[in-house]
UniProtKB/TrEMBL annotation:
Cadherins are calcium-dependent cell adhesion proteins. GO terms for cellular component: adherens junction; catenin complex; cell surface. Its main location: membrane. Residues 585-596 have a biased composition (Pro residues). It is a single-pass type I membrane protein. It comes from Chordeiles acutipennis. This is CAD15 protein. Residues 564-596, 667-696 are annotated as: Disordered. Residues 16-122, 166-258, 268-373, 374-481 form the Cadherin domain. It is found in: Cell membrane. SUPFAM superfamilies: Cadherin-like (SSF49313).
C-alpha cells in the first residue's frame, strides 16, 4: 500500500502548482498591480521561498514584474505596451529555507491585452494617380474595388456582396499597429472632400479609388484633389487622413478650328521662299501634345503648287509661304481653300468641327522686273577683215512688265578691243574697225562682249547679255618658201638634195598641209629636178635654179617662188661632212632668173627647215629607214657613276673620235681581221655614211661588192667589216661574233660588287 501510494503520488498533478495564463491590459495605470499568487503544496517548517525569472524580471525589460518570496504574490510594476511585447513567459521556483528545490519549475505566462491606442497610418501623405478623360464610370455603389491589383468588373466588399467597379485610378491604403485580431485594427476608408462634383469613389475596405460617374473632361477640370480618411474600429475608432491627387490625361476629343472663315494676304511678284501670312486656329486639347498640334492642307486654288503651308510649332498657327515665284502679269489673285486637322486621329466620340475649312485670298502685287535676254549668250560668226560699219546682229532684251509702259536702252558693258559700236535704242551691233587674226583679245577664235539692257523705271533695273562673235578665218595669205636659197652638195655625176619648207600666215584650216610642185610653166625642169615629200617638207635634187609652186587647200592659193640652189663639190672645205646631215645655213643667193614672179606673205608658219629635219629624222627612225643624221644616239656617252650637279656636270666622250679616227689618232696600220690569214690585205679605209635616203642603195651595194671581191676570206657565214671603228679603246671588248657561245669560262663574281641593282644578276651568274 505504501508503494502504491508513492506511485499514485507521482501520477497525480498538483493543481496548486499549475498556473494558468494571466491576462493584463496594456496601459494599466494602477501600479503595483497584483497579477497572481502561486503556492506550493509542500509546506515545510519555517515556510517556502518563492522566486520568478525571465523577461521583465531579470532580463530586458527589467523590473516590470516582481514576487513576494514568502507569500508567492506576483505584482505588475510598470505600464505595458502590447505593440512592444504582447506576452511574457516566466519561470516560477519553490525552495526550502536551505535552498533545496521543493517543486519543479513551472511556467508563468502573462498575456498583454490590446487596447485601441494606435491610429491608422497611410503609407504616404500624398497619393498621385492618372486617368484618361472620359473614363468609364463604375456602378452606383461607392464600394467598388480592385481584385489582385487589377481592375475587375466585380469586387467584393467586406460583407461579400459583389458590386460593379469603374475605372480605378489608385489605392490609398493605411496600416494600424493594434492587434490585427481585434477591431482595434479593422480599418474603413472614405472620401471626405473632392470638390463640387463627386466624380470618384473609394473602396471602403481596400482604399482603391475609382471613377464614379461619366463626364471627366480635362478641358473643364484637369486635376482633382481628394481628401481620404482611414478609421479603425470598423470606422468608429481612431482616424487619419491623406491627400489623393488625380490628373486627367488628354485625349484628342477636340478638333482644331479656324478662328474665322476667311483670311486675306498680299505678296509681291517674283518672291520665292518668303512667308505670305498666317491662318489662326484654336484647339482645346493639351498644348504641345499631338492631340493639339495642327496639320494644314491646301485643298483647292493652287494647281501649280506655288504656295506651301506649314505649322508654327509654338503657336500652332498655319504659315503660308511661297514655293514658286508668281508673275503679276500672268495672274494677280488667288483664292485658296485650306483645311486643318490634328497630327493624331480624332477620337470617335469627339464632335465634328464646323470650322475645319477656311478660305485664303492672296493678291499678287506688281513690282518692277529686270529686263531679260531670252538668248544668252548670243553666238554669231563674222569673217575676218569685215570692214567697219558692217551690222553683226541685233541683240535685244524683253521687259516682263507688260502692264507698265517702259523703254529699254542698251549700252556696251565690255568691249576690250574696242571693235564694236552699239545702237542704244535698237540694240544693233556693228563693227567699229576691221576684225583680224591674230589678236590677244580672241579666245580660241571667239571675241566676247557684254551688253547692258536697262529700263526707265524708278529705280531702274538692268540685265546683262553676252555676245560671242566667232572670227572666221579667211584664206587671204599665200605660203612663202623657206629657205629662198640653199646649197646642194654632191659627187660628180650624182645629184644632191636640199630640204625645203614653207610658211603660211593663215590659221587652220587655211594653213597646213602645203603642197609643192615644179612650176608647170617650166616643164624642162623635170629633167634635172624632182620634188618628193619628206615628212611634210619637200626635197629637191640637181644644181639648177628651180621655180617652185606651193599652194594650199580651202581654197587653193598658188604661190610661185624662185629657189636658188647652188651646186658645190662634195669636199670638206665647201660642204659639211656627210655625217653632219643636210646643211641649214643658206648660201648667198645666185642671180635670179629673169622671170618676175609675185609672192604674197602669210601669217602662220607651216614648217621651219630645222624643225622639218628633226621631224623627218624621227619618222624615218620609226619607219626603219637607214638614214643617218648628224645627231647620233651615241653622241653623249656620260659617266653616271658620279653624284654631281646634273647633266651639265658630266664629262662626255666625243663620238667624233670613233667616227673619224683619222682626224684625232696618229696614222697607224689598221687592225687585222681575226678570220683572215696573216697574209690577207688590210681592209679598205672607212667608207662615208650616206648623206640622204637616196644614197642607201649605193652604200649597201658598195659594201656587198667589197665583200664579194675579197679573195682572202671564206665567202660564207663569216663576219665582214663594213666600216672602220678606230684603233684601240679605253673599254674592253664586250663580245665577239666569233667568241664562244657559252659562258662556262666566264667569271661573274664581280657582279656582287656592283651594288643592289645587280644583285639579281649576281645570284643567277655569280
Amino acid at each position: 500500500p505504501q508503494a502504491w501510494g508513492q506511485h499514485e503520488g507521482l501520477r497525480r498533478v498538483k493543481r496548486a502548482w499549475v498556473i494558468p495564463p494571466i491576462s493584463v491590459s496594456e496601459n494599466h495605470k494602477r501600479i503595483p498591480h497584483l497579477l497572481v499568487q502561486i503556492k506550493s503544496d509542500k509546506q515545510q517548517p519555517g515556510g517556502v521561498i518563492y522566486s520568478i525569472k525571465g523577461p521583465g524580471v531579470d532580463e530586458e525589460p527589467l523590473g516590470i514584474f516582481s514576487i513576494d518570496k514568502f507569500s508567492g504574490k506576483v505584482f505588475l510594476n510598470a505600464m505595458l505596451d502590447r505593440e512592444e511585447n504582447d506576452r511574457f513567459r516566466l519561470k516560477a521556483f519553490a525552495l526550502d529555507l536551505g535552498g533545496v528545490t521543493l517543486e519543479d519549475p513551472t511556467d508563468l505566462e502573462i498575456i498583454v491585452v490590446d487596447q485601441n491606442d494606435n491610429r491608422p497610418l497611410f503609407r504616404q501623405d500624398v497619393f498621385t494617380g492618372r486617368v484618361v478623360e472620359g473614363a468609364e464610370p463604375g456602378g452606383s455603389s461607392r464600394r467598388a474595388g480592385v481584385v489582385g491589383g487589377q481592375t475587375s468588373p466585380y469586387a467584393h466588399t467586406h460583407r461579400g456582396a459583389p458590386v460593379a467597379a469603374g475605372t480605378c485610378v489608385m489605392t490609398a491604403d493605411a496600416t494600424d499597429a493594434d492587434d490585427p485580431d481585434t477591431d482595434n485594427a479593422v480599418l474603413r476608408y472614405s472620401i471626405l472632400e473632392q470638390g463640387t462634383t463627386s466624380m470618384f469613389t473609394i473602396n471602403a475596405t481596400t482604399g482603391e479609388i475609382c471613377t464614379a460617374r461619366p463626364g471627366l473632361d480635362r478641358e473643364t477640370v484637369g486635376i482633382y484633389n481628394l481628401t481620404v480618411q482611414a478609421a479603425d474600429m470598423s470606422g468608429d475608432g481612431l482616424t487619419t487622413t491623406a491627400t489623393a491627387i488625380i490628373y486627367l490625361e488628354d485625349i484628342n476629343d477636340n478638333p482644331p478650328e479656324f478662328t474665322k472663315e476667311e483670311f486675306s494676304m498680299e505678296v509681291e511678284e517674283q518672291a520665292a521662299g518668303v512667308d505670305v501670312g498666317k491662318v489662326f486656329v484654336h484647339d482645346k486639347d493639351l498644348a504641345g501634345s499631338p492631340n493639339w498640334l495642327a496639320k494644314f492642307t491646301i485643298l483647292e486654288g493652287d494647281p501649280e503648287g506655288a504656295f506651301a503651308i506649314r505649322t508654327d510649332p509654338h503657336t500652332n498657327d498655319g504659315v503660308l509661304s511661297m514655293a514658286k515665284p508668281l508673275d503679276h502679269e500672268v495672274r494677280d489673285r488667288f483664292e485658296l481653300t485650306v483645311s486643318v486637322q490634328n497630327e493624331r486621329p480624332l477620337e470617335p466620340t469627339a464632335p465634328a468641327s464646323p470650322r475645319a475649312l477656311a478660305t485664303v485670298r492672296v493678291r499678287v502685287r506688281d513690282v518692277n522686273e529686270a529686263p531679260i535676254f531670252r538668248e544668252n549668250p548670243r553666238r554669231v560668226s563674222v569673217l575676218e577683215g569685215t570692214p567697219p560699219g558692217t551690222p553683226i546682229t541685233t541683240y535685244t532684251a524683253s521687259d516682263p512688265d507688260t502692264r507698265q509702259l517702259q523703254t529699254l536702252t542698251y549700252a556696251l558693258l565690255y568691249d576690250p578691243a574696242d571693235w564694236l559700236q552699239l545702237e542704244p535704242h535698237t540694240g544693233t551691233v556693228r563693227t567699229k574697225r576691221e576684225l583680224l587674226h591674230p589678236s590677244a583679245f580672241l579666245q580660241g577664235g571667239w571675241y566676247i562682249a557684254l551688253l547692258l539692257a536697262r529700263d526707265d523705271a524708278e529705280p531702274p533695273l538692268s540685265a546683262t547679255g553676252t555676245l560671242s562673235i566667232e572670227i572666221l578665218e579667211v584664206n587671204d595669205h599665200a605660203p612663202r618658201l623657206q629657205p629662198p636659197a640653199g646649197v646642194v652638195c654632191g659627187r660628180p655625176g650624182r645629184g644632191g638634195t636640199l630640204l625645203l619648207g614653207a610658211t603660211d600666215d593663215d590659221r587652220p584650216p587655211h594653213g597646213a598641209p602645203i603642197h609643192f610642185q615644179l612650176s608647170p610653166q617650166h616643164p624642162q625642169l623635170a629633167r634635172n629636178w624632182s620634188i618628193t615629200r619628206f615628212n611634210g617638207e619637200a626635197t629637191s635634187s640637181d644644181p639648177y635654179q628651180a621655180p617652185l609652186t606651193h599652194f594650199l587647200h580651202h581654197p587653193i592659193i598658188p604661190s610661185p617662188s624662185i629657189l636658188h640652189p647652188k651646186s658645190l663639190p662634195a669636199s670638206p672645205p665647201h660642204c659639211p661632212s656627210p655625217t653632219t646631215g643636210i646643211p641649214t645655213q643658206p648660201a648667198p643667193p645666185s642671180p635670179p632668173v629673169p622671170h618676175p614672179v609675185p609672192t604674197v606673205p602669210l601669217p602662220a608658219v607651216l614648217a621651219g627647215l630645222g624643225a622639218a629635219r628633226v621631224r623627218g629624222r624621227r619618222r624615218a627612225l620609226r619607219q626603219g629607214l637607214l638614214q643617218r643624221s648628224r645627231d647620233d644616239m651615241r653622241d653623249n656617252i656620260l659617266n653616271y657613276d658620279e653624284q654631281g650637279g646634273g647633266e651639265e656636270d658630266q664629262d662626255a666622250y666625243d663620238i667624233n673620235q670613233l667616227r673619224h679616227p683619222e682626224f684625232f689618232l696618229p696614222r697607224a696600220k689598221p687592225p687585222m681581221r681575226r678570220d683572215t690569214p696573216l697574209s690577207s690585205a688590210t681592209p679598205p679605209a672607212p667608207r662615208q655614211l650616206p648623206s640622204g635616203p637616196s644614197d642607201i642603195e649605193d652604200f649597201i651595194n658598195e659594201g656587198l661588192e667589197a665583200a664579194d671581191g675579197d679573195p682572202s676570206v671564206p665567202p660564207y657565214d663569216t663576219a665582214l667589216i663594213y666600216d672602220y671603228e678606230g684603233s684601240g679603246s679605253i673599254t674592253s671588248t664586250l663580245s665577239s661574233i666569233v667568241s664562244s657561245l657559252t659562258d662556262e669560262d666566264q667569271d661573274y663574281d664581280y657582279l656582287s660588287e656592283w651594288g643592289p641593282r645587280f644583285q639579281r644578276l649576281a645570284e643567277l651568274y655569280g
